[in-house]
Specification:
The complex is a heterodimer of chains A (139) and B (77). Chain A has 139 residues and is mostly helical. Chain A is built from 5 helices and no strands. Chain B has one domain. The chains are: A mainly alpha (139), B mainly alpha (77).
């Protein structure tokens, strides 16, 4: 595809901020709008923007397909383990087995932060893997 | 406000269906997605609005533009 300078410059400058915004959505999903899926999709669209602006090889060098696939599988297994930990500790699937610390000023998160981060990494790896594979078919 | 947005949604969807240029149609679908994101936000569903903005406007448009690039731009039917 033919690219213009404006597209390349803007998307190259914009991709790190998209990663940052995606991580913000992941880690603050229990307090504000956002959460695992949304943050993961924003991170994946940052990777896609990088692959559109800098070429598919650069994105593949930064995020290799093999490690993305390993990350996705590993996050899924960890998510299942985090869900089953509640079963074994008697609070039900995806329950919160952690003790609720009553620190002042700190919101009580429990397992939701961990689950959000795991779901977000899994969604980011999965969606970017699909799109990178899809774009590479064209070469 | 929501009624105006729903009317705009209808108009953009109709234009996206009627256009013969596939690239313009995909971009009109992106505009549709952005407007529906605004509707979700006005209906106090910011989570759904975020999902719509990220998936519909971001990834969906990119994937559809790639499909248009691979298949052809004109609608010949």
């Amino acid at each position: 595809m033919k690219k213009t300078d404006i597209l390349e410059l803007v998307s190259r400058k914009l991709a790190p901020f998209m990663f940052l915004f995606g991580l913000y959505l992941l880690t603050y999903g229990h307090l504000s709008p956002g959460g695992g899926f949304q943050g993961g999709v924003v991170i994946a669209s940052g990777i896609i923007l990088l692959s559109v602006s800098r070429g598919i090889e650069t994105a593949e060098a930064l995020f290799p397909s093999f490690s993305l696939s390993i990350l996705e599988t590993f996050c899924f297994i960890l998510l299942l383990a985090a869900g089953l930990a509640g079963v074994f500790l008697g609070v039900g699937f995806l329950g919160n087995p952690l003790p609720r610390a009553a620190a002042a000023g700190v919101p009580r998160v429990g397992m939701i932060l961990l689950l959000n981060i795991l779901v977000g990494l899994k969604v980011a790896a999965g969606v970017s893997l699909i799109c990178l594979r899809f774009f590479r078919e064209d070469e | 406000m929501i009624e105006i947005l729903l009317l705009l949604l209808f108009i953009t969807a109709f234009i996206a269906l009627q256009l013969k240029d596939m690239l313009a149609s995909v971009l009109m679908l992106g505009v549709f997605s952005l407007l529906s994101c605004l509707v979700f936000f006005l209906l106090h569903a910011p989570d759904v609005a975020l999902t719509e903005a990220a998936v519909g406007t971001g990834i969906g448009t990119v994937v559809l533009i790639w499909v248009v690039h691979k298949t052809g731009r004109r609608d010949t039917t």
